[in-house]
Amino acid sequence: MSNLNRRQALRLFTAAGVAGMTAPILSACSTGSDDSTDSTSVPSGPPVKIGMIVPQTGAFKDLGNELDNGFSLYLQAHGNKLGGRQVTLVKVDEGETGDTGKAAAEKLIKEEKVLALTGVVNPQSMLAMKETVEAGQIPLVGSNASPSTLQGAKYIWRTSFVSTEPAQAIGPWVAANGGGAIAVIGQAGPNGDEDDVRMFVETLRGAGGNIAGTARTTPYGSRDFAAILGQVKNSGANALYASYGGATAVEFVKQFRNAKFPSTFKLFAPGSLTEGYLLKQLGDSAKDIYTSLNYSPDLDNASNRRFVAEYQKAFGSIPSTYAMASYDAAAVLDKAITDATKSLDSFSLNAAIGRLGQIDSPRGGWQFSQNRAPLQRWYLRQVRADGAVLSNVLTAELTTLG
After folding, report:
1. pTM of the full structure
2. What is the C-alpha to C-alpha distance for residues 278 and 66, in angstroms, rounded to an integer?
3. How many domains is the chain built from?
């Protein structure tokens, strides 16, 4: 599919619908105020209290805002109801560390007595709060990437993806289209970048690709990339895979451009390098970067067209995968609360989430896999002009993972 132009790709995805998914389609979640699961067509009941854990301060605040936006947009479109019940949304600051994230979960479970939790930006927060969530038997529908080391959870669900999947999705494509040996770098530290680097190397080699030298990492929090970019230049690589996110991603891309690599040299990355608010900060320095992600705002399906239009109207910007996953978290809770409404408590809600089946989403149809993360399509995007603005433009469908 690497030779598809954008319009051909969109026609293909429109025609394909959700046929490419291996699981049968069950009742879909509502994605607009005119859907069959609108609050006027489902049983009503007492109000429900949902706890949202997102960074309200610190380095992850911008990402937390996008999670907040996506969930709030769904509530606005459904009369502030989930499963026909009025919602009280209690937001607690996740902070920047695993400890602050765990404290937020404890407050919502023990003091606020919430029915369910959502949000969580930092993978370390999700690991830190696992014991609290499992002991409290309160379902957490997390809406950002979760660490691959999260195993054995019964009450933690994720509407985003596992942190190793962007690399796993793009590795075979880069092996076939990277143009030769690939340099690989990423950030050492607690947030999954090393897992992403490891998975990319494993997947690329498994598809017959070659690594230029060895994969390299930079210290967590470091913003000086001159030395490692010099090593890449001298490695004989024809392209680079770089795993960074947040403010570090912005600084990396700018230094990469200043290093003056040849015009034929390609930069590949997980979607976190250019997604959402980061693309605005990067500007023209992000042009032509290829990324792997589970969502692109130009996916041509009815749910996404409605979602993008509603999001732009509400917030004046194009939605990111973070906003989309949080929107879907609300949709999951909406449908599960409806299903469990006759005897609704946290235990029955968790069981109802496990019975959901197919979700009609802006990303395309998906459903929870056995590891409680989405079985979903992955897409290749390239940063280029889309009308008057730069955007992560859909280039190809890569694979289905979950």
Report:
1. 0.88
2. 12
3. 2
Alpha carbon distance 402, 372 (integer Å):
9
Residues 321 and 31: their CA atoms lie apart, in Å, by: 15
Instruction: Say whether both 51 and 173 belong to one domain.
Output: no
Task: Report how far residue 147's alpha carbon sits from residue 239's, in angstroms, rounded to the nearest whole number.
Answer: 27
Structural domain ending residue among the three candidates 293, 325, 353? 293
CB atoms within 10 A of CB 96: 18
Q: Strands, DSSP E only, in 262-388?
A: 266-270, 290-293, 367-368, 374-386
Q: Tell me, what CATH number does 226's domain have?
A: 3.40.50.2300
- The Cα–Cα gap between 48 and 139 comes to 14
Tell me the per-residue pLDDT of 222-267, one tens digit each, with 9 for 90 and over: 899 999 999 999 999 999 999 999 999 999 999 999 999 999 999 9
Mean pLDDT score of the chain:
89
Among 53, 203, 77, 55, smallest CA distance to 129 is for: 53
Q: Which residues, in sequence order, are bridge partners of residue 186?
A: 217, 243
Could you tell me if 132 and 114 are in contact, meaning their C-beta atoms sit under 8 angstroms apart? Answer: no
Name the 3-class secondary structure at 38.
coil
Task: Decide: 120 and 143 in contact? Cβ < 8 Å.
Answer: yes
Domain extent for 273 = 165-293
Please check whether residues 197 and 255 belong to one and the same domain.
Answer: yes
Asked if 146 and 191 sit in the same domain, the reply is no
C-alpha dihedral sign at 224, 227, 233, 239: negative
Task: Indicate if 59 and 178 belong to the same structural domain.
Answer: no
